[in-house]
Inverse folding.
């Protein structure tokens, strides 16, 4: 019985240290919040820096008068993902709002491509500035299944730009590639 009493007394005397040291925990949480805010600030500064590097890019064209009266060749409802320097799928262009992802409504006519973006800057690409369209899988960090992205290449000033779109109905992409490429070949033929 003495052995049992001795064990009982030893168990009663031993106490665990307190598990939570609140001051250390609060310090860690505050430190982590400051670190996250600092990283966010650095990312924002990088975005602004990229925009200032691209400040030489001319202003985007606006939709011409009477464009809504034209008969559209194709329309598309979906998402605008990004614009990059042509051929460089990670070199995002942020100037003039081209770096902002958004919903998009595209209308293609013989006059050009009208891109309506609620909550972001709309822009217009004249038919003479369109270069080609293709199906791709990646643009500016957005990776989709093979052929899941409609990429339209166009000239803006001295810069060739790839703009990526994804339709709500991916089956429409091929029709867009065919129509834009047909329009560019017709425009090049009349320009010569």
């Amino acid at each position: 019985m003495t052995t049992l009493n001795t064990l009982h007394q030893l168990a009663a005397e031993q106490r665990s240290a307190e598990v939570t040291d609140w001051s250390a925990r609060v310090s860690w949480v505050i430190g982590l919040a400051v670190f996250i805010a600092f990283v966010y600030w650095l990312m924002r500064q990088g975005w602004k820096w990229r925009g200032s590097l691209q400040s030489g890019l001319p202003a985007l064209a606006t939709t011409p008068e009477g464009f809504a009266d034209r008969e559209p060749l194709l329309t598309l409802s979906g998402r605008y993902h990004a614009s990059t320097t042509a051929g460089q799928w990670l070199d995002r262009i942020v100037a003039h709002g081209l770096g902002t992802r958004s919903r998009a409504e595209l209308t293609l006519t013989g006059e050009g491509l009208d891109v309506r973006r609620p909550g972001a800057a709309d822009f217009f690409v004249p038919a003479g500035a369109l270069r080609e369209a293709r199906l791709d899988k990646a643009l500016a960090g957005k990776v989709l299944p093979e052929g899941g992205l409609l990429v339209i290449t166009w000239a803006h000033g001295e810069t060739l730009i790839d703009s990526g779109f994804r339709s709500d109905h991916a089956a429409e992409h091929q029709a867009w590639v065919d129509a834009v490429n047909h329009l560019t070949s017709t425009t090049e033929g009349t320009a010569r």
In short: Residues 23-53 form one domain.
